[in-house]
Specification:
It comes from Bordetella genomosp. 8. The protein is of the alpha/beta class and 319 residues long. 41% of the residues lie in helices and 22% in strands. The chain has a five-stranded mixed β-sheet with strand order 4-3-5-15-6, with helices on one face. Strands 11-8-12-7-13 form a five-stranded mixed β-sheet. A three-stranded antiparallel β-sheet has the order 10-9-14.
């Protein structure tokens, strides 16, 4: 007979990349987990995984069993949550994954606030370079930018424009871009993240209508003078006068307000990077995940830069 431990084992194998990682998630030793896996395969009469010294891969049957096991565990959690609703107390473990910069600056303080409101809940926050689509066992994922090929549901928490910025000193020395085509003649700082083509920038007039915007859209191929996989580093380089940077509004707004950066081409709109929360399908969604959704939609919606955006500073003229 299949036990809950068997379901937890299968779910751990789905989220882990090795037997060691799965064993760590279940707090057992790899040899003990290997024995449990062989026993489960004997019970089911199928091979669930192929393993080498370094990697574990689920078979088609193993993938199906693991996904069904994860769904069943989620339903059990949901049942327990529903029985506790009268007490209005959230319990269990809630795992959240977010990008390093935005997660550290915005999500971590909100998770602390959420934890204070639900003291019986165990919260785990994991900051990753690419929280999506890396495989892990998060219950909710904060992602910045477009999401493609996802079986999870994306909830937009806030809009997030990308602003083209440079330091006042850089603009005084090198001049101010007046049109998008001027940008390619400048030193540009690129951020390599989310497997995007970061040297291809799309820009359109902000005030144009929908059809006109498509007609007037321009595509710029940037030859970056500097590149990094860290957005905060890219912004700091721009503040130090190295060049133009296309940065998320959530990160650039404070520097623009303080005068360390100046927003250029403000009448043009670059591709946005909305802040979204990815959660599993509604079937089997736990009460703690639903509570987190409602909490973050309320808090991030109120603090979104676009709702109280600082006025764009005037662009200095070349001297």
């Amino acid at each position: 007979m299949i036990q809950i431990d068997d379901l937890q084992l299968a779910a751990a194998l789905l989220n882990g990349t090795s037997l060691t990682a799965a064993a760590r998630a279940l707090d057992v030793t790899p040899p003990a987990l290997s024995i449990r896996l062989r026993k489960l395969e004997a019970t089911l009469g199928v091979t669930l995984a192929s393993r080498t010294a370094r990697r574990l891969s689920l078979t088609a049957e193993g993938e199906r069993f693991a996904r069904d096991a994860s769904a069943m565990l989620a339903q059990l959690d949901s049942l327990c949550d529903s029985l506790r609703q009268d007490a209005r107390q959230l319990t269990g473990t809630l795992r959240v994954s977010a990008p390093f910069g935005y997660g550290r600056q915005h999500i971590a303080p909100l998770i602390a606030e959420f934890a204070r409101a639900h003291p019986a809940l165990r919260l785990e926050l994991e900051l990753r370079e690419t929280p999506w689509p890396d495989r892990h066992d998060a219950d909710a994922i904060i992602h910045i930018g477009a999401v493609r090929d996802s079986s999870w549901i994306a909830r937009t928490l806030a809009s997030n424009e990308r602003w083209l910025c440079a330091s006042p000193a850089y603009l005084r020395t090198h001049g101010v871009p007046r049109t998008p085509r001027d940008v390619v003649r400048h030193s540009c700082i690129c951020i390599r993240e989310n497997n995007e083509d970061v040297t291809l920038w799309h820009v359109r007039p902000r005030s144009a209508g929908r059809g006109q915007r498509r007609a007037e859209q321009e595509t710029l191929r940037i030859a970056p003078a500097y590149s990094t996989n860290d957005g905060v580093v890219a912004r700091q380089w721009a503040e130090e006068g190295l060049g133009l940077v296309l940065r998320s509004e959530w990160d650039a707004a404070e520097a623009v307000s303080a005068g360390r950066l100046v927003r250029v081409l403000a009448d043009w709109e670059f591709d946005s990077a909305p802040i979204v929360m990815l959660v599993p399908t509604r079937i089997g969604r736990t009460a703690r995940v639903q509570a987190l959704i409602e909490f973050l939609e309320d808090r991030i919606g109120k603090q979104a830069p676009s709702r109280g955006r600082p006025a764009a500073k005037r662009t200095p003229t070349r001297r």
